[in-house]
Amino acid sequence: MADSAVPPSLPCGFINAANRYLSAEPFRFQVVATGSALRLRQVWMLRFVPSQGAGAAGQAQESGQRLHLLSSLQRFLAADPNGKVTCDQESPGPGALFLLRQYPDGKVCKLHPPELPIAPHSRHLL
User: Fold this and answer.
1) 3-state secondary structure of 70
2) Based on the structure, what is the number of domains in the chain?
């Protein structure tokens, strides 16, 4: 039986438009997109955040799945309202909550902070 206290999670890698993997670097916990092959530093853990409250299931379907992104360095990815991305938080804090949206064709997904508009500038796309 699965432990209900542990949120479901999924390992994955992210590729940008230039076909480079998003990496978590140990130096100052920077985030870069330079990897041409999937390595340990490019593996991220999607930690799904359960919906809370009545009617949450319908809201989750409409707005997307809420999640946190945990790097191989055990630090959480976060973004501020200006689009600056960091990976230095040991626990999920402000800006570490993202939405996973799936397009109607089922092929393309993107991640973005919930407070950003639906079609943000390309620097906000992961």
Assistant:
1) strand
2) 1
